[in-house]
Amino acid sequence: LAIAPVVAPAASVDGFAKQFLQNLNFDQGVTLSTSDVNDQYLALAYTVRDYLMARWFDDRAQQKAQQNKTVCYLSAEYLLGRQLDNNLLASRLTDIATEALAQCGIDIDDLRQVEIEPGLGNGGLGRLAACFIDSLATMSVPTIGYGIRYEYGIFRQAFADGQQIEQPDAWLRMGSPWDFAHPEAAQTISFAGTTETYDDDGVERTRWVPEWNVLAVPYNMMVPGYHNGRVNTLRLWRAVATNAFDLHTFNSGDYVESVRAQTFAENISKVLYPEDSTPQGKELRLQQQYFFVAASIADFIGNVLPDDFDIEKLPERVIFQLNDTHPVIGVPELMRVLVDEKKLEWDAAWAITQKCFAYTCHTLLPEALEVWSVDLLGRLLPRHLEIIYRINDEFLLEVRERFGDDEMLIRNMSIIGEHPSRSVRMAYLATVAGSKVNGVAELHSQLLRDNVLKDFAEMWPDKFTNVTNGVTPRRFLRLANPELSDLITEALGAGWTVDLERLRGLEALADDVDFRERFAAVKASNKRRLSRVLEARGEAPLDDGHMLDVMIKRLHEYKRQTLKVLHIVSTYEGIVSGRLDVDAVQPRTFLFGAKAAPGYGMAKRIIHLINAVGEVVSADERVKGKLKVLYPANYNVTLAERIIPAADLSEQISLAGKEASGTGNMKLALNGALTIGTDDGANVEIRKLVGDDNFFLFGMSEPEVEALWAEGYRPADFYQDDEELRRAIDLIASGAFSDGDRSVFEPLVSNLLYDDRFMALADFRSYLDAQDRVDAAYADQDSWVRSAILNVARSGYFSSDRAMRDYLERIWHATPVS
Ligand code: 26Y
C-alpha cells in the first residue's frame, strides 16, 4: 500500500462542513440532530485541527532535518486563553467555518462560549509565554514551548459575602481537543536515592542511583503562526505512574496497595501552584520543576535532534530560555546528562551548558527570588546538589581571581546561601550559568544591574541585557477588538497585524473629526458588548456615558489596589459630604479584576474591602449615576479580552521600582485606554512613546522611593497632614463598609497607618491630583479621543513580535526559517 501524505480538507465551505459532520459522527459518535453544543464545539475544534495537521507534520520533520537553532522556551506556566478563535484566525478559516456551521444550522458564537480556557498560569509571566510562542510561530522561528499539563489550572474564583473562595479548575472535564498524547515518546524521570562512583574503563565516574521514577508523557499542542502556514509545538508533560511495581509489596500479595502507592507520582502534574510571588519551598513544586525540565531536555536531545547528533555541537542547535527561576534545575540536569551519561569532561560540559541557557528575571521583590533548602534538594536530587556545589566552587574561585579574597563578597555572591539555613539561590545559579540575563523592561533591567544582581553585573557586564516585554497583537487587538481592527485596516491596510509599528499611520487621523467619531463609536460599542457579558455572568451592567476605569491584574500589595480604593472612597465621601464639586466629577465605573493567592491573607482582605466599598457605593442613591464599582469574579484571559477593548482608563499604579514590567498596561494602551500610572516597569516606556500629554503620571520616582525609605517612612504622618486622606481612611475604619463592625478592616487600616510597605499613603495626594486631571481631560471628549487614538498609534513597539526580534538578536542568535 502506498501511504498517502496527509491532505488537509478542502478550504471551502463545503469541504469544511463535510469534515465537521464527519468529526461529529466518527469522533463524537453523534448525529447533527442528536448532538449537543459541546459535541459541536469538539467537532469544530477537531475540524480546525485537521486543517493544521499537515503543516504541523511538515514543520516537525523540518525541525529534525534542518540545521537551524531551535528556541526551547522552558516555562512552568502558559496562560493560553481560548484556542478556537485564535486557531481559526491563524489558519484563515473564520469565515469558512462560520458559513459552514450556519449551513448546518449552528451559530458559531454559541460554540465559542463552550470552550473552557486552559488557565495553566497565574498571570503576567504565564501570559507572556503564550504571547511569545504566538509571535515565534508567526515569525517562522522553530520553537518548542515546554511546560506542564496541569490537570487543574489556576483556581476559579467566586465571592461569598465579598470574600474570595477558590474552586478547582477542572478544565479537562469536557474533553481537550487541542492536544495529543504521545505515550510512545514518554520519558522516565527519576527522583531521590543516592550517588556512587564507579570505575569506567579506568576513569572514575559518578552515577545517580535513584529511588523512584515517574513517566513524563508529552501532550503536543499546535501553535499556528498567523497566516504563514507554520505550526510550532507546545509540549506539555503529564505525570503518569510507571509500570514498575514495588515488587516487594506486589509479591507480598498486596496488589491493590502497590497500585495505589505508585499512582502517588501522578500528583506531580495535578495542580498549578496559585502563588506568584512568595515561593513556599514545597517539595511538590520542586518535583514539578525537575519533572518538566528533565523531560524536556531528554526529549530535545533524544527525539528532536537526529540520532547521530554530535552532542558537542548542542549550542549550535538549541537555546533553552529560562522563564524566571522555575526551570533553573535544568542547568545541573544538562550537566548531569553531559558528564554522567555522555561522558564529557566537566570543563567541556560546562562550556556547552553555559552557551545553551539564558535567563529572564521577572521580579525585583527579594521575597520572590526562589531558593531551595539544601536538605530538600539533596534528598530529592542528590546528584544535582553535588553538581551545584561544584559549579559554585569553580565560580567562587573565579570571583577570588577577579576581586581578591573579599570574604563578604564571596558570601554575598555564593550560589549557596547560609542564612537562615543553607539554601540554593536559583537566581544566582541561573545568572552564573546563563549566557545572558535579561530584565523585562528598561527600568527593571537597570535595577537588576544596580541592585539585585549588582556584583554579577560588575563581573560580567556584557551578560546583562534588556528585552522589554510585548503582547501579541493577534489576540489582544485583532481578535479582542474586531471593530477597532476593521477601522484600522480600513485606514492603513491589513499589514499591521504582523507589523505593529504601522499603527503610527493613525497619528495623522487623530485630528480627523470623522475618524475620531468612528473611533469613539467603536469604544462605545465595546462597552455595550462588555455590559452584555457582565449581565450574562449575573453582574450589574455598565451605565451609558460612564468613563470605564479599569484595574485588572493579580491582587498584590505592591500593585496597590488599596490606593485605588482610597481614591474611590475619597471621591464617594467627597460627594456625599458636599466637599466636592459634583459637576467636576465625571461619571465613572471602576472595574476590578483580580485573583489573590489563596494563602495571601492581606490580599484577600483587600478583595473583601473592594467588594464592601463597591456594595455601599453602588447602592447609595446620593452617588447614583455618578459612581459605580464592579468586581466580576474569576478574572481570566477570556474576560480580559472583553474588558480591555472597552476601557477608557488604565490603572498602572504600583510603587515605583516594584513592577518588573506589566503587560496589561501595554494591552490597554494598544486598545486606546489612557494610562494613569507611576514611573514603574514598562509604564516608563509607554509614557515616553505616547507622550506626556496622553498619559497621567503621578507618584514618587524610584530614587525618591529609596530616599524616603532611607530617611524613615512614617505613613501616619501623611495621614495626619492630609484631610482628604484622613477622611477616607476614617470612613473605612468607622465600619461604614462593614455594617458598623470596625474590626473587619482594622488589620488593613493599621497596616496602612503603621507599616504601608508599598507607600500608598505617600503617593495618595499625587494620585488624587492626577485623577483630577483625568476628570478634566475626560470632560473634553474630543481631546480625550484624540489622546486615545495617539495611544493606539504609538503602541506598536509593544508587540511581542518586536520582543522576539530583540531576543533573537541579543540573546538567542537564532534566525527564522524560510
Ligand atoms: C516561584 C513562584 C512562587 C512564582 C510563580 C509565578 C513566582 C512568580 C510567578 C509569576 C510572576 C509573574 O507573573 N511576574 C510578572 O511577569 C510579567 C511578565 O514579565 C511582568 O510583566 C510583571 O511585572 C511581573 O510581575
TrEMBL record:
One Gene Ontology molecular-function label: pyridoxal phosphate binding
Cofactor(s) for this UniProt protein: pyridoxal 5'-phosphate
Catalytic activity entry: [(1->4)-alpha-D-glucosyl](n) + phosphate = [(1->4)-alpha-D-glucosyl](n-1) + alpha-D-glucose 1-phosphate
Domain of life: Bacteria
Entry annotated with the keyword Phosphoprotein: yes
UniProt EC number: 2.4.1.1
InterPro entries recorded: Glycg_phsphrylas (IPR011833), Glyco_trans_35 (IPR000811), Pyridoxal_P_attach_site (IPR035090)
GO BP terms: glycogen catabolic process
UniProt KW keywords: Carbohydrate metabolism, Glycogen metabolism, Glycosyltransferase, Phosphoprotein, Pyridoxal phosphate, Transferase
SUPFAM superfamilies named in the record: UDP-Glycosyltransferase/glycogen phosphorylase (SSF53756)
Residues with the N6-(pyridoxal phosphate)lysine modification: K667
GO CC list: cytoplasm
PANTHER family the UniProt entry points to: GLYCOGEN PHOSPHORYLASE, GLYCOGEN PHOSPHORYLASE, LIVER FORM
Biological role: Phosphorylase is an important allosteric enzyme in carbohydrate metabolism. Enzymes from different sources differ in their regulatory mechanisms and in their natural substrates. However, all known phosphorylases share catalytic and structural properties. Allosteric enzyme that catalyzes the rate-limiting step in glycogen catabolism, the phosphorolytic cleavage of glycogen to produce glucose-1-phosphate, and plays a central role in maintaining cellular and organismal glucose homeostasis.
Homology family: Belongs to the glycogen phosphorylase family.
Full protein name: Alpha-1,4 glucan phosphorylase
